[in-house]
Design brief:
The structure is a homodimer. Helix content of chain A is about 45%, strand content about 10%. Chain A is an alpha/beta fold. Chain A folds into three domains: about 30 residues, no CATH class; about 240 residues, HUPs (Rossmann fold, 3-Layer(aba) Sandwich), CATH 3.40.50; about 35 residues, no CATH class. The longest helix of chain A is centred in the middle third of the chain and has 19 residues. In chain A, about 35% of the residues are buried. The model of chain A has no long low-confidence stretch (mean pLDDT about 90). At the A-B interface, helix 10 and helix 11 of A face helix 10 and helix 11 of B.
């Protein structure tokens, strides 16, 4: 909790009127609005450099959902001088998609950057249609579809890197889930940079060291309008339960999330990837030519199931 | 929750009057009193064999605290035909120690097995004295002192193995704590068998696959009186917070504790121990000759601090 009248850790000596409005217990920082914005952008910049994500020469594509994370990230990247356009995937989830598309488009106009749109209904079917046909949990099917079209479109449009707004809370929840079951195959891939290989474009997560709350505050202080409600299908998702558990852990011991996530990256990730161990061979889908573990990729199979024609070659 | 009138999974066809009194959701078992006792003892026996803990020829020493775990374990070991005596360490913690010692002694008499007693006050000082002088958290100092005297006394008394009552909940809480900080040195040693080496006697945990609740039920059904309240120093210990978190996880997804613990043993423990990596060299304490990482071991240093003479050679 921020005590009333606390001064900003950065500007306290310069301007006594600038009171802190944000307290980050795990960084022991109290910041005014201006210095919080600076801090957030610096942290994004440092994360990009620390993990060698991309440079100012790269043409990058931000996966934009209309939520606080992706819009804050896009905004910060533009302010930092990166060449970042946006990609919005219209999932066809009623009001949720309608609102988030509108918000994303108007944000793109505000920062004068291109926002590409993929409309799932035209490509394969809406998420509600897919959910009623797929055997997977809603979020899992939606994740596969989004990853597929992000990868495909980014390549078609000539971008070098896909940038997603996954934040520390997201990464901790996923890492936690994979740790509870010690799912080594997933743990081996949990890194904020996935390099380009086998038809997969490079994918990076510059918000991996900032929290959900920090994205939200950055959006609010930067006057970014974002969609505040969650996707209606996400209710009851295990990631939400894990986030609740982690909010308890973090409250009792500030810094726990960062320690858990960064400790994994530093100490365990290298151990899991130390040898060129057997990894499942990646082929090309015979229908759409996208990378796949099987002859026909999951998305083309899903299309067939949805009674649509296979992807055009 | 056990529905009223549920029949025991084992004896339902034999005796319709024997209603189940225990439901174990993670094993999908509903059991009557008699078959729960059988189930518990079988599970202990299987765990002993699975991890090659000891055989019926070995003289083993059970670390007895007077709680449900150690007394249930001792009882089960005797019923299974093992040569198990007890070791009680009187920590000198007021009523708690007085009550638990009395309970342990009378249980030893009931099963007609020797209970050795170590009185910390005579050896080094009581836990309250140590806590007021040590710089460590209460449970950490107490743990070190107990491990030291268990090891020393078991060797002096000619036992081959120390058997402790750590249950699945204990192991999960410790594993969880070490995972949150990815403490590789501790994770490398988290196994239900620690072999004899460098002056350390073999140490095993036959209850690692049964829960706290299962020990308690076994004690109740076997008419074992045990000390029901916790050590007064344990309040606020992180292990208690972790147990609360795990009780939420387990309730939402029965079997999570076992999956987390056994998954670690199977998939991660071998990975961490795959090479003879640098391990800190173990020497002998120059004062007490017990194993130590330094010239003088932690217990002898503590003794010096408590203004007592160093351990006799």
């Amino acid at each position: 909790m921020l005590k009333k009248g606390t001064r900003c850790t950065i500007c306290k000596s310069k301007n006594l009127k600038d009171k802190a409005v944000v307290f980050l217990p795990h960084h022991r920082l109290a910041l005014c609005k201006e210095h919080f914005i600076n801090w957030f952008e610096n942290r994004v910049e440092k994360t990009i450099k620390e993990f060698k994500m991309f440079s100012k020469e790269d043409k990058i594509l931000v996966a934009v959902s209309g939520g606080k994370d992706s819009l804050s990230l896009w905004n910060a990247l533009i302010k930092l001088g990166y060449q970042a356009d946006g990609l919005y995937i219209d999932l066809g989830i009623g009001e949720y998609s309608k609102d988030s598309k509108e918000i994303s488009l108007s944000f793109g106009e505000r920062i004068r950057r291109k926002l590409h749109i993929v409309t799932l209904e035209k490509e394969i079917g809406t998420i509600p249609q897919i959910n009623s046909s797929a055997n997977k949990p809603a979020c899992s099917a939606c994740g596969s579809v989004k990853r597929y079209y992000m990868n495909k479109k980014a390549k078609e449009l000539g971008y070098s890197t896909i940038v997603t707004g996954h934040n520390l809370d997201d990464e901790v929840a996923v890492l936690f889930g994979n740790t509870l079951s010690w799912d080594i195959d997933y743990l081996k891939r949990q890194y904020p940079v996935l390099k380009e290989e086998n038809g997969f474009i490079k994918k990076v997560k510059p918000l991996c060291k900032t929290t959900e709350k920090e994205s939200a505050l950055y959006a609010v202080f930067s006057n970014i309008e974002y969609i505040e409600y969650e996707c209606p299908f996400s209710q009851g998702a295990s990631s939400i339960r894990y986030k609740e558990i982690w909010s308890q852990i973090e409250q009792q011991s500030p810094g726990s999330k960062l320690r858990f996530y960064l400790g994994f990256l530093k100490k365990v990730y290298p151990l899991l990837n130390q040898e060129n161990q057997d990894t499942k061979a990646i082929k090309q889908c015979i229908l759409c030519k996208e990378p796949s573990f099987n002859d026909i990729c999951g998305i083309c199979k899903l299309k067939q199931k949805l009674h649509k024609a296979p992807a055009k070659l």
